Amino acid sequence: MDVADTGSRKLVFGLIVLCLGLLAFIPPAFAAGNDIDQALLWTDKGNGYFVNGRYEDALGAYEKALESDSHYSIAWFKAGTANFMLRRYADALKDFEQATTLNPEYFEAWLETGNTLQAMGRSREALQAYDRALNANPNSEEAFYQKGMACLALGENQVAFTAFDQASRLDSGDARAWGGRGTALYRMGKYQEAVESLDRALALDPGLQGAGELRNQAREKAESGGRTAVTFPYPALLAGLSLAFLLFGKKR
Fold it and tell me: How far apart are CA 108 and CA 41, in angstroms?
């Protein structure tokens, strides 16, 4: 065997080794792509269940998506929304935390973190989550509105007014924002301004729970210089304003 023949054999052997190495590398790459595709498919399936009110089935589909790709932040967020609708708030909170850990600027996940904390009565933490949401999206009317609700729960009426006022500027057609604004003004003793804000809310939504009664009481207070003793319908109005906690995706 001459030197040339030996060299040829070595070259062929080297190419075989190289090809085997490439074959060993290619399957994981294809598998990773397949995992992502499966995660997308399961998420889409979960969305179909979710919009039809089948939250348990939706949650199961989102969990399947996460089995395929545990780094898919959207699937974590979707799982959180399903758990929220099932009133499993602690589980929802964990899901939203995973989503925001993977994507710290995930606006929707921060917003729903706040809504979940608010539903759990943890308004101070909810306020922090709404601020994170606003950092990600400074022009969200919904985030300002929900921040105002958290501030009302904490008795921080001036901050609540500022949040509701900004919400009403971003969406002048949202009766809830005008109702919240009027509530904050009432609590601050600014009765005539409260009347005007609540009139605006009722013009947009005549059925806004508690708004009519509060408007009438604010008017009595304004006309009597604030001396009229009335029973304030906070629970009724705040219940009406808080329905957004159960309406995912209504506004962003």
Answer: 21
Q: Is 183 within the bounds of a domain?
A: yes
Q: Could you tell me the two tokens for 74? A: 């959207």
Contact 43, 30 (CB under 8 A): no
Helix axes 123-136, 141-154, angle to 10 degrees: 160
User: Distance (Å, rounded) from C-alpha 61 to C-alpha 45?
Assistant: 6
Task: Please write the tens of the pLDDT for every residue from 53-84.
Answer: 999 999 999 999 999 999 999 999 999 999 99
The C-alpha angle 85, 86, 87, rounded to 5 degrees, equals: 85
Whether residue 87 lies inside any domain: the answer is: no
Residue that is written with structure tokens 């973190």 in the block: 113
Q: Do residues 120 and 211 both lie within one domain?
A: yes
Same domain, 66 and 151: no
95 part of a folded domain: no
Longest dimension (CA), the chain: 117
**Co-location of 116 and 221 in the same domain:** yes
CA 97 – CA 157 distance, rounded (Å): 29
Cβ–Cβ contacts within 10 Å for residue 215, how many? Answer: 23
C-alpha to C-alpha distance for 251 and 245, rounded to whole angstroms: 11
228 DSSP assignment: -
Confidence (pTM): 0.79
Report the alpha-carbon distance of residue 22 to residue 29 in Å, rounded: 11
- As a whole number of angstroms, the distance between CA 126 and CA 152 comes to 12
